Amino acid sequence: MLLPIVGEFLTSIGLIVNTYFFYELPVEAAAVTEAIFPALTGGWFTMFMGVFSYIADVTTEEQRTLRIGI
């Protein structure tokens, strides 16, 4: 479950670098930076899938709706 978080962190760092070098880098560099890390690490939806799978695994059927709702 840490891989999507790392990917989003690297995307944020890459976009900060693109902002710093705004006039030197082409627009394609920002597009690649924003797309490559989530594509390789799964993005936020992989994180949600992992969290929901973990909750479904550790809770009983009676508690599951409450825990996923929280």
From TrEMBL:
UniProt main location, coarse: membrane
Membrane-topology descriptor: Multi-pass membrane protein
An example Gene Ontology molecular-function term: transmembrane transporter activity
The keyword Transmembrane belongs to this UniProt entry's keyword annotation: yes
Keyword Membrane: yes
Keywords: Membrane, Transmembrane, Transmembrane helix
Cellular location(s): Membrane
A GO CC annotation given for this chain: membrane
Transmembrane segments: 5-23, 35-56
Protein name, entry field: Adenylate cyclase
Organism per entry: Pararge aegeria
